[in-house]
Design a protein that fits this description.
This protein is mainly β. The protein has a single domain, classed as Porin (Beta Barrel), CATH 2.40.160. It is about 15% helix and about 55% strand. It has two helices and eleven strands. Strands 1, 2, 3, 4, 5, 6, 7, 8, 9, 10 and 11 form an eleven-stranded antiparallel beta sheet that branches. A hairpin with a 3-residue loop joins strand 6 and strand 7. The longest helix is centred in the N-terminal third of the chain and has 26 residues. The protein is elongated. About 25% of the residues are buried.
């Protein structure tokens, strides 16, 4: 008599593999295409970073260039002691005198303001205004054909000078050179002239020299400066004309840059 076979109720049938259609299998070409798909390389990242750095650097340079335009205030001392007119004429109804004149004066202090661009190893520029305080002419020597008409006299005339100027510059490290032109606006007082009128006008002149930066904020300059004037007037007997004359002298400037 056969014994009944006991079947385990917990035993599960083993899973059968799902058949895969041949069309769903990856082909060799497909595998190759996937592996060749482009990715961001280190070189590309470095190049992008370099471009960003260049852009930032250009922005910094642009900002620095705008800051290169600076201002300066300074004290000056002008050693000018002679104003020379090489062509002077005086005439009355009968005679005309020709000659020259020299006004002897004292040196004068003053002030200056300037806008500039003056960077190391570059060409630059500077433009400004100066004011020289009043100086007194101590003597006036006039030679008109060997004689001085009696009515052309001066009694302690004074002169203060406002001047506009523009310079070209070239700077190395701390040292720079400058040269340029100026135009004067004189404030002339004739003193107690015998009679009549007397007026002075400004003219163009030149200056040149060198400067030094002791620190980025503090500097000094030494110049040779020539400023021009003309003078004319009349008395009851004479009309006279002092054609362009010049005061040429050394000048020192103590400067503060900001």
């Amino acid at each position: 008599m056969k014994k009944p076979v006991r079947k385990s109720m917990n035993k599960k049938p083993s899973p059968q593999p799902t058949p895969v259609a041949e069309s769903e299998l990856p082909l060799e070409d497909d595998v190759h295409e996937v592996s060749a798909e482009p990715t961001t390389s280190i070189d590309e990242v470095a190049e992008k970073l370099h471009k960003n750095q260049d852009k930032e650097r250009q922005q910094r340079i642009s900002q620095a260039n705008r800051r290169k335009v600076r201002f300066a205030a300074y004290l000056l001392y002008n050693f000018g002691q002679e104003l020379k007119f090489n062509s002077v004429s005086a005439a009355d109804s009968s005679f005309k005198f020709n000659g020259s004149a020299t006004f002897a004066a004292a040196p004068a202090p003053g002030l200056g303001l300037e806008v500039l661009r003056n960077e190391a190893n570059e060409w630059g520029y500077a433009a400004g205004i100066t004011y020289e305080m009043s100086r007194k002419f101590t003597t006036v020597d006039i030679n008109l054909d060997g004689a001085l008409p009696n009515n052309i006299q001066f009694d302690d005339p004074t002169l203060s000078i406002i001047a506009l100027y523009a310079n070209g510059t070239y700077r190395w490290k701390e040292i720079y050179l400058l040269a340029g032109v100026n135009h004067t606006f004189p404030q002339f007082k004739k003193g107690a002239a015998t009679d009549g009128t007397l007026s002075m006008k400004g003219s163009f002149g030149l200056q040149g020299g060198a400067g030094f930066y002791f620190t980025p904020q503090i500097g000094g300059e030494i110049l040779l400066r020539m400023v021009g004037f003309s003078l004319e007037g009349e008395t009851s007997d004479y009309t006279y004309n002092y054609e362009i004359g010049y005061m040429t002298a050394m000048q020192i400037n103590a400067r503060l840059h900001f």
